[in-house]
Design a protein that fits this description.
heterodimer; A: about 180 residues; alpha+beta; four-stranded antiparallel beta sheet; 2 helices; B: about 150 residues; mainly alpha; about 60% helix; about 0% strand; elongated; Ribosomal_protein_bL20_C (chain B)
Amino acid sequence: MAAARRAAASWFRLAVRHRSSQSQAPPHGLVAKTSLSSPPWPEVKLPDPVEEAKYHAEVVQKVNKMIATGQYGRLFAVVHFASKQWKVTSEDLIMMDNVLEAECGDRIRMEKVLLVGADDFTLIGRPLLGKDLVHVEATVIEKTESWPKINMRFQKRRNYQRKRIIVNPQTVLRINTIDIFPSLS
Amino acid sequence: MVLLGAPRWLRSRLTDRFWRVQEVLKYARHFRGRKNRCYKLAVRSVRRAFVKSTKARKEKKRFLRALWITRIEAASLEHGLKYPAFISNLLKSQVELNRKMIADLAIYEPKTFKSLAALAQRRRQEGFLAALGDGKEPEGIFSRIVHHY
């Protein structure tokens, strides 16, 4: 930490020119406290890496055990689907504004899972979680069209108006289950 | 005997004027004043309403994004982080949640949001150390980039 402080002090001192009448250099290690002698952020101290690694391993083991024994309630997941991100639980409905090439009643697995959480733990993916860790299943329920949306353009005093009715195909999915498996490391 | 053209004394009259007018008035029924009853006034109002709704569909996206950003800022300030620090550090840690999701998590999953804020704070501190140390300090644990290939 002292080495870093000295390095920081010397880096900042190079940016500032000294022009003092005294030719004595200040004793090494003692820096006059100016606005540029230390970085503008408060000093940061990270915990010991060895101890931290031990703590991390302990936490991972604990969460693995919790998943293996099934000590979680309802799970929620953040899934990337149809170019949107959805926060999803079991038995909830999702409507996408486009066509899915699957018949009504087909089971679908959603693979791009960004985050899975329960009451006591969350698994954050960087950016995605592994396929052997989470399993999200959904069923296609209905394929309909949206209500007729009206697109109108009008310019005043120019006798210009265009009216267009847009009907988008929509698909409704129901999320059946979210499963997690104890394969953390 | 088949007639190829209509004779001059046959006139055609508009018989479905009522329904053509109702087509426009049905969109004006919830307006205020005479424009919900009188066709001439209703036509103008309905046209403006359609044009405004077309433009608003584009502005809704901008407005919602600003709303999400405000909510994320409020939630991250509760945990002692400002919005730019929170978002930039989250992206540097390769967490690619979009603002809509983070705002939803901040509302409905406060514990998850707290863990995200802690992750961003830790990555920020590792960034400060990396800026000062110039490689003399060991590399941070949360700054490691995960490769998926």
